Amino acid sequence: MQVLRSLVEFLRQTGIGAYPLLPTPESQGVPSLPTVTEQQLIDTTAREVQVLYERLKRTQESSTVAANLLGATDPVSRAR
Fold first, then answer.
1. Distance between CA atoms of 9 and 46, rounded to whole angstroms?
2. 3-state class of 72 per DSSP?
3. What would the DSSP string read from start to end of 19-41?
4. Calpha distance 77→4 (Å, rounded)
5. pLDDT tens series, the chain, 80 aa
6. CA-CA distance, 77 to 80, in Å (whole number)?
7. Measured CA distances, 57 to 46, 52, 63, 64, 66 (Å)
8. What is the phi/psi pair of residue 4, to 5°?
9. Nearest residue to 22 (alpha-carbon basis) of 6, 3, 41
10. Strand partners, 27
11. CB-based contact 32:24 (threshold 8 Å)
12. Which of 18, 25, 29, 30 is deepest in the core (most CB within 10 A)?
């Protein structure tokens, strides 16, 4: 089992391991994990990307507001 973990870690580090691995068949009384279809993976990935996009968008909007506030000058102090 340690060898498989080492292999999975190596594959992740090289980029190949980003792909999901199919669960092994039941062996020695250990139940296998439910298999995930490609469409489920696509749906999950799409939802996660949408959440990250919305978070980035809010951050950029907040940064724009902060930049506008910092760039705004006080007309009273400028007239003096």
1. 25
2. coil
3. SPPPPPPPBTTBPPPPP--HHHH
4. 68
5. 788 888 878 887 887 766 666 666 665 565 666 777 889 989 999 999 999 999 999 999 999 999 998 888 665 555 55
6. 5
7. 16, 9, 10, 11, 14
8. -65, -40
9. 41
10. 30
11. yes
12. 30
